[in-house]
Amino acid sequence: MGIKRDFYWGWYVVLGAFLISGINCGARYCFGIFVIPMSLEYGWSRSVISLGASLMTLSYGIGGIFSGYLLDRMAPRWIIIIGAVVSAAGLILTAFVQSPWQYYLIFGLLFGLGSAWFGVVVCSVSVGKWFLKKRGMAIGISSIGIGVGTMIMSPILAYIVRQNWQQGFIFLGLIVLVGVIFLAQLFMRKTSPESCGLYPDGNLPAAGCTFPPSLRPSPSTYPEPAQGLPLQTIFKDSRFWILAVCYSLAVMAQMSVFVHQVAYAIDRDIDQIAAASSLGFIGVASILGRFFFGWFSDRIKDAKIASSIGFFLMVLGMIVLMKANNAALLFVYSFLFGFGYGSIAPMMPFLLVDRFGIQVLGTTYGALTFFVAGIGGGAGPLLCGFIYDRCGSYNFAWQINVAALFLITVLILTLKPRDLHRNV
Q1: pTM (2 decimals)?
Q2: CA dist., res. 202 & res. 233, Å (int)
């Protein structure tokens, strides 16, 4: 397709991951726009609607385990294509649901499982395998697509849903089906630099398409372990569970506001378009955050410091959201929370590789995503909807988010470094 052969393919993988992540997260994170229209049409409570979003996130986490496992063993293109077909079917069929069980089955399970196969695990791991010295920057750039997708899709969906919410789901399904399949075929055909006779970052190219054993880099140049750790060993490591707790609570807070902040803003008499646009503005702020935290993590001794800063900015954003009674404050919240939340996507795989090595990144990232997105992200919207239905407001839910985010701001700093002598 006119792509120059002397340009390092890893950067095309970054571009593909950027665009695919944008479509994936734009479709998932804009769900909050549908909450009030669906509630008004069907008479469902916000707990009922939130349960669908929670099931979707749980299914996404479960799907991440299998996609991460497969990604260590096959090319990402086919994993992404299968996921695009399944999730597109889920989105389009959601427009025609008539009962909660249909909604839970189609949106919660079908769309959730499908979206995992072209989600953050597949995209970030695919990028991580092509880089070493520039890994933080590369993952950070690719994850910017998450913010761009949310930023672009939020106002478009707000306009479509204002006319007819069913058309919004059909629109998302067609974007996923056509866009993701095309991008996977174009950019995600190759698995790793070694498969084409290259080292990570495009250094030391070799002739042909096989990796020459005589020219393998020394450990001092590319300090990756020769053999991956068994998953059972990783599960016994306290560092994995610190990462699981911290990022599960962070994503719990993230998903609770993503699903409910538009309804919260409308309840506080903020215009519907402004409320929906605040989701897009979180996307704008997260673009800056992803770039900054990806760049910053390559330049500090331990990336856990960058992660702690990101969590603290999310704390500040939640505090502002609790006071937001006009569009201006809502956008201040969106900037602080979005910039801090922008640290999550680049920092999770970066800290995993830094502690456990690149060989098991797909498997460990998939397992971590189950806890983070599946349990943490699944609990957030449901807990928030339950609190609203019982208390008539979101205040207590936001207070829980503040407490959880402050806790992990401190907890992530206890993460021990990797012991290179023991290969763990």
Answers
A1: 0.70
A2: 32
